[in-house]
């Protein structure tokens, strides 16, 4: 996540944030550290703006329950994504593939590439993985999983509000049975009680489909609205600019 250069953190603050169990010298902890740093250093050298590892064993029961139901027992997760400043990256385009055209945004493709690349890094070391890639439309389930990183919030618009970036990000998650050190010690964790959604409902008011209620997202209403040709423009062949009002209305940064 983005570093806040205005409020540099002291060595004491950073050290206080690192759980003691990560500082042990046994072989298992050493392996956990090495794997985590390998991923982290790769993400930093690839200049990936949204990166954070999650140690699922340190989550609350409620957070941990979001990671049930995989074909393996997950122990860690890796959040990866791109910041999006140009809304054109959310233009839906028909990309040709093996099974014909696939409607997808550039924002999704960037995040998918990160996720596939880092899945390979884990699988090559013998770990199992599953990817949950972002879509252009809200995904409250994914955004709650991303918020388990404690580096952002699950927004009322069904999108992940990344700490210093707001919801103009395209981020997904790799769930894995690899043991990882959680956190990103460059930045303090956020408190869900400080969510910018506390006193805001701009996304709910902005949604022309009535798909957001503040506590739920009616996917069908959103999809039907966005896919109605009366509700999108086509700046070029195979390109459509569809509704992203719940993102553009969000003041969180
Ligand atoms: S528009 Fe307001 S309520 Fe909606 S996600 Fe953004 S901050 Fe939260
Ligand atoms: S504002 Fe648009 S993209 Fe967001 S939920 Fe409503 S219809 Fe879907």
Automatic annotation (TrEMBL):
Give GO terms: molecular function aspect only: iron-sulfur cluster binding; metal ion binding
Q: Does the keyword 4Fe-4S apply?
A: no
Ordered alphabetically, the record's keywords are: Iron, Iron-sulfur, Metal-binding
- Residue limits of the 4Fe-4S ferredoxin-type domain? 186-217
Which top-level group of life is the source organism from? Answer: Bacteria
Q: What InterPro entries does the record tag this protein with?
A: 4Fe4S_Fe-S-bd (IPR017896), 4Fe4S_Fe_S_CS (IPR017900)
Key word Phosphoprotein present: no
The protein here is known as 4Fe-4S ferredoxin-type domain-containing protein
Q: What is the lineage of its organism?
A: Bacteria, Bacillati, Bacillota, Clostridia, Peptostreptococcales
